[in-house]
Amino acid sequence: ADRQPRLPPAYRLVALDSVGSTNDEARRLAAEGAEDGTLVWAREQTKGRGRRGREWSSPRGNLYLSLVLRPECPAAEAAQLGFVAAVALCDALGSVLPPLVEVTLKWPNDVLVNERKAAGILLESVMDADGALDTLLLGMGVNIADYPEDSAYPATSLKFEGARRDLDEVELLEAFARHFLTWVNRWVDDGFAPIRHAWLNRSKSKGREIEARLPDRTLQGVFEDLDETGALQLRMSDGSLRSITVGEIFWRP
Ligand code: BTN
Hints:
Residues 2-188 form the BPL/LPL catalytic domain. It catalyses: biotin + L-lysyl-[protein] + ATP = N(6)-biotinyl-L-lysyl-[protein] + AMP + diphosphate + H(+). Keywords: ATP-binding, Biotin, Ligase, Nucleotide-binding. This protein is of the alpha+beta class. It has 2 domains: 12-202, BirA Bifunctional Protein, domain 2, CATH 3.30.930.10; 206-251, Roll (SH3 type barrels), CATH 2.30.30. The chain has helices spanning 22-31, 75-78, 80-96, 169-190, 193-203, and strands spanning 12-19, 38-45, 63-69, 103-106, 110-113, 116-127, 133-142, 209-213, 218-226, 232-235, 241-244, 248-251. Strand 4 (103-106) and strand 5 (110-113) form a beta hairpin. The longest helix has 22 residues, at 169-190. Biotin is lined by residues 21-23, 45, 48-51, 54, 56, 64-66, 110, 120-122, 139-141.
């Protein structure tokens, strides 16, 4: 249906039909003073961006949104919000998909449905003149109807994995907004510990053999843990532990 989303009062919705990238629009609005909770939502993007400079395929029928967040915390802790959002999105997807569809998280902030990527999160920060965190732009794309066939990793869409035919962007946007509010309040009240716990429970990656592709090299090891900052703790074959903050991980058979 083409009804307008109904969001909790903590959000200010900016609904667009078509835009280059909702993250760019959110950044522009933030520079003009947009408040915490401003949510830019578009039906399609013409220049959707993924992590690490990749393109994010953005046809109509999927969900594209960016949140303007102005957290009162150091920049190093702000990355935790990516995990807050991933847990919230995981729960939102679980609430709209049939019971037997498996929704899991993959480090850092991907959401997999039946082990294929259905959603991604792009966190960008805006610093003030003193180098402190001013604003965080939390972008999220969910493949509801369509997914790219040619992506670097196995991708899928909610419809392909058996979502109800009438599931649409508006319903999913509302579900995410509700769950994100719950989890962000939890984070404000109790810190990262409950988020980390929830993330690990939903990720099923503890103890799995992985390949971590870092900007400059590739490492193999076992996914051991997520630390307080959201860094991945990789157990190497020589027994040492490495902390990984940027990169991409792949399962190994
Ligand atoms: C990833 O690479 O996994 C992150 C994908 C993030 C895509 C979303 S769609 C809404 C927002 N606007 C963008 O240009 N990118 C993010």
